[in-house]
Amino acid sequence: MAEGPEPRDNAGRGAIRVKTVGAVLLLMASAAILAETAHRSAEYPRITPRPQLAPYSDPAERSARERDAIGTFATGTTPGDRIIVVDSDRRVRFSVVGATDPAFSSSDTFQMESVNRQPCLATSRSGIITQVDIDHLEYSGDTYERQATHRR
Fold first, then answer.
1. 65, 69, 70, 72: CA torsion to nearest 10
2. Taking all residues of the chain, what is their mean pLDDT, rounded to a whole number?
3. Distance separating alpha carbons of residues 139 and 118, to the nearest angstrom
4. How many CB atoms lie within 10 A of CB 128?
5. Nearest CA to 109 among 119, 98, 124, 99?
6. Surface-to-core class of residue 97, CB atoms within 10 Å of its CB (0-12 exposed, 13-18 middle, 19+ buried)
7. Measured between alpha carbons, how far is 31 from 19 in angstroms, rounded to an integer?
């Protein structure tokens, strides 16, 4: 008998089409998820802008404000509460009540400035510490109460 051409395998082509369509759909879904993620992340500001700082033009007033800020301030006295120590050498030290690990303490330098006529300690790396009154500081949304005053 004469041999003729072999019959075509249509089942194989159908499987290839299904795989191709599935890969295209998966690629489109991935692109849609990536676009949605990029859109949502763009909705939020990356950094809170630093407020406009005004230096004290009168050295005597700046010195008086610095003297008023010197002391130890804390959010409380129980372990885990935070402490800010303002030194006369224009340094601030941050620590946590009850912490013995040095990772829970840091220090920074500051300049006495004002924001909207409110005295503040503008630190070089840690942000702005607002002096609410002689006995209270605000930092990162928390209020710190004076615990002790350091002598010059």
1. 180
2. 85
3. 13
4. 18
5. 124
6. middle
7. 18
DSSP 71: E
Intervals of the chain under pLDDT 70: 1-14, 41-49, 149-152
At 84, list the tokens. 């800010």
How distant, in Å, are the alpha carbons of 18, 47, 61 from that of 127? 58, 12, 22
pLDDT at residue 3 in the model = 63
In the three-class reduction of DSSP (H, G, I as helix; E, B as strand; rest coil), residue 82 is classed as strand
Q: What is the spatial distance between Cα 105 and Cα 81, in angstroms, rounded to a whole number?
A: 12
Q: To 5 degrees, how large is the angle CA 10–CA 15–CA 16? A: 95
**Running DSSP on this structure, what letter comes out for residue 53?**
P
The number of helices, as runs of H, and strands, as runs of E, in the chain is 2, 9
Q: What are 59's strand-pairing partners? A: none
Enumerate the H helices of 43-93 as residue ranges.
59-69
**DSSP annotation string for 96-152:** ETT--SGGG-EEEEEEEEEETTEEEEEESSS-EEEEEETTEEEETTEEEEEEE----
